[in-house]
């Protein structure tokens, strides 16, 4: 057990905590990063499973994610484009499979018109929003007290259009059913990504991947931080006091006790209550954190001897709001002769999938992949499910969002420090919300705040 003294102690070695530590250290402050797991990277994790190299967590980068892109440049990490040549597949609610090109699903003219109208309305609402302050949107309360599911149906009577548009935010991003979060939360998701149209455009939002893996960001930062990163050491207690305006905070973790001037909680909000705070957090924090929860998604990796779908003129991209796998993409690694598909089974479909035995789940999920890309897709040589819901130090994926009404009610206070305690994670980001870019932005923002206070 070490007893150490630093300017700032950071709890959580995900991209947000590691970025904050890096920025603070570059500017001359001393830091320690306390991490519960035996590795850095948090929800980014690149590893070899059964001989296949996989991105188990976060992986894609979009062109607007400039904070992440800047950090990749600084760390000397290169990117490559997702394979997207050829036709995509849409599976309609009646199970019909259609090949198509472009962004619009091959739906009837009426459904297409209804989808375009919903996209325009969501773009207009997102354009009125400052992602730093979604609660200041002119219709914030009105949008926050209705579920996204019901709001869509106030705008359109076309059920297929509502489900398809719902998919981009519900299954696709927040990984909760559209009835479980508000229309304001949906508009915020769009505004954080620049527009709703950006979320519909998979070529934009799922543009590039990092050669060597997204976890490389945290691994490279860990090389720079050296012994300042302490692994296998869950933080258990944050104790603090103030004497003559100076804070003194002590973080007790399994392998180190760190005394510092400030502490950064760089963990998702659903995990704050895993730490005991002394004195206890204020009432508003206690309440707020109970209204923020992670979604649930199974990221399915299926590896084949070759990317066989390309021969058939298919990009590997497929969408269906009604299938078990709702989205599928070619996820073949850089310069890898084998082909990899990645599919997503989200929210209530993930609940269902987890009621099955592992064998039955694989059978149903690969059958769903085959519905998009043909019978060969049902026979991967390597099959793996990223199951972040059962990871003790995450408990869901991809990130957290507020329940109905929570965003406008608590959002204004989500970044308010409590004494020496600051909050930093992708779940609290404005731009890049839920994404690695948001984690990096929050790390940089928190470091800048602390530098202003401490230097
Ligand atoms: C399956 C999946 C797919 C995703 N896909 C993408 C994508 O394609 N593109 C994208 O940009 N984003 C994606 N994301 C989201 C992205 O990975 C996260 O937004 C990002 O990693 C969040 O970073 P963070 O530092 O805020 O939190 P985290 O990465 O969660 O890091 C928090 C760290 O805190 C640690 N911790 C928790 N409690 C304690 C404690 N008490 N003491 C010490 N340590 C603690 C955890 O172990 C963890 O290492 C995906 C996420 C998942 C899970």
UniProtKB/TrEMBL annotation:
GO molecular function per UniProt: oxidoreductase activity
Binding site for FAD: 16, 35-36
SUPFAM superfamilies, alphabetized: FAD-linked reductases, C-terminal domain, FAD/NAD(P)-binding domain
TM spans (from-to): none
UniProt keyword list: Oxidoreductase
Keyword Oxidoreductase tagged: yes
Residue ranges occupied by any Amine oxidase domain in the UniProt entry: 16-450
Cofactor: FAD
Signal sequence interval, chain numbering: none
Similarity field: Belongs to the flavin monoamine oxidase family.
Protein known as: Putrescine oxidase
Naturally occurring in which organism (per UniProt): Arthrobacter alpinus
Lineage, broadest ranks: Bacteria, Bacillati, Actinomycetota, Actinomycetes, Micrococcales
